[in-house]
Amino acid sequence: MAIPAQELRPRGLSPARPAGGRPVTRPLSFGAPGPRAREDLAEVMSRVARGDQQAFATLYDAVAPLVFGIVLRVVRDRAQSEEVTQEVMIDLWRQAARFRPEAGSVTAWAATIAHRRAVDRVRSAQAASDREHARATREHTTAFDEVAEQVETRLESEQVRRCLRALTELQRQAVTLAYYRGLTYREVAQTLGAPLPTVKTRLRDGLIRLRDCMGVGS
């Protein structure tokens, strides 16, 4: 029973967005329809289920204003509400065969679909906004962290180099070999050709002077 979407506006029916901006031209009372009206719409829906486009035009005029009002109250945006209204009417065309009069009126069914579609639109828009905000926040945070790390590393490196220059030659050699090249105390002693206890003393004294120079608490 599928037909092109553009054909869902039968001859004589308003387009989705006419000059006046409303999805339909003929207003409909928002009061509950009487028993006869419910019976008539149920018959109209059965004809729609058989692919009757003129019946769909009648259905559109009858329920589109109600659908638009429900959607607008949820979405709060007129243009989007018109789009969602058209989506609901397409749903009614495509799902007409699923309508069961004993389960409720046509207007109640249309209202349920309208509310669900409107909520989905709001949630989708909110999710897109949240993703964009998270992406922007992540990019900003990452950029900030990278810059902060670079600045901190640069300042620390300059401070370390300055403090290393304040050490004696032997202290600087021992600290450099042990903490920048990763040598063990014994390997440092072998590299410098000095006794192990002497190397340990140089390292201890050198680290104490570095700590005091860099303002690190003991």
UniProtKB/TrEMBL annotation:
Annotated protein name in UniProt: RNA polymerase sigma factor SigK
Keyword Transcription regulation recorded: yes
Protein family according to the UniProt entry: Belongs to the sigma-70 factor family. ECF subfamily.
Signal peptide span: none
Keywords assigned by UniProt, alphabetized: Sigma factor, Transcription, Transcription regulation
Family matches, as InterPro entries: RNA_pol_sigma-70-like (IPR039425), RNA_pol_sigma-70_dom (IPR014284), RNA_pol_sigma70_r2 (IPR007627), RNA_pol_sigma70_r4_t2 (IPR013249), RNA_pol_sigma_r2 (IPR013325), RNA_pol_sigma_r3/r4-like (IPR013324), WH-like_DNA-bd_sf (IPR036388)
Residue ranges annotated for the RNA polymerase sigma factor 70 region 4 type domain, each copy included: 158-210
Gene Ontology MF annotations: DNA binding; sigma factor activity
Domain RNA polymerase sigma-70 region, chain residue ranges per copy: 59-126
Annotated spans, Disordered: 1-34
A matching Pfam family: Sigma70_r2
The keyword Transcription regulation is annotated on this UniProt entry: yes
Phylogenetic placement of the source organism: Bacteria, Bacillati, Actinomycetota, Actinomycetes, Kitasatosporales
CDD domains: Sigma70_r4
GO biological process: DNA-templated transcription initiation
Organism: Streptomyces termitum
